Each structure stands twice: as structure tokens, then as C-alpha cells.
Amino acid sequence: MTTAPADLLTVPEVMERLKLGRSKVYDLIRSRRLISIKIDSARRIPADAVRDFILGQIEEAA
Q: Do 28 and 53 touch, CB atoms closer than 8 A?
């Protein structure tokens, strides 16, 4: 069985989606609140991880 590959976003794309600065996105990655992977020296964030982060923040606020 194969699964569809995750859409991978760059840090600037995540910055745009979350309306956050570069430092804050890297803080979220460092604190493991936002999952990311490295491909050589390129940092990529699965789109699902951004969605899960947003949903988690909504649940915390409720």
C-alpha cells in the first residue's frame, strides 16, 4: 500500500501561513511544537504539521 507524499513547505511559506516571523517559526521547530525535517541543509515542514499545530492552538484556546 502506498500513501500520498506530504506537501512540504519552506520556512517562508510557513511564516506566511501562520503570519509569524522567521525567529518564531524556528522557535516552534526547536521546541518541537512544529514538526520539521531536514533534507541536506534545507528545512521543510509538512503541511499536515502546520494544520495540526493550528488545530492544537485552537483546542488550547477553547
A: yes
pLDDT reported for residue 12: 97
Q: Which three-class secondary structure state does DSSP give residue 37?
A: strand
Give Cα separations from 51 to 2, 9, 12, 37, 55 (angstroms). 22, 12, 16, 16, 6
- Grid coordinates standing for 16? 506566511
Say if residues 48 and 62 touch (Cβ distance below 8 Å).
no
Which candidate, 14, 41, 16, places its Cα nearest to that of 26? 14
In the prediction, which pLDDT does 5 show?
64
**pLDDT per residue over 1-49, tens digit each?**
556 667 999 999 999 999 999 999 999 999 999 999 999 999 999 999 9
Location of C-alpha cell 524556528: 26
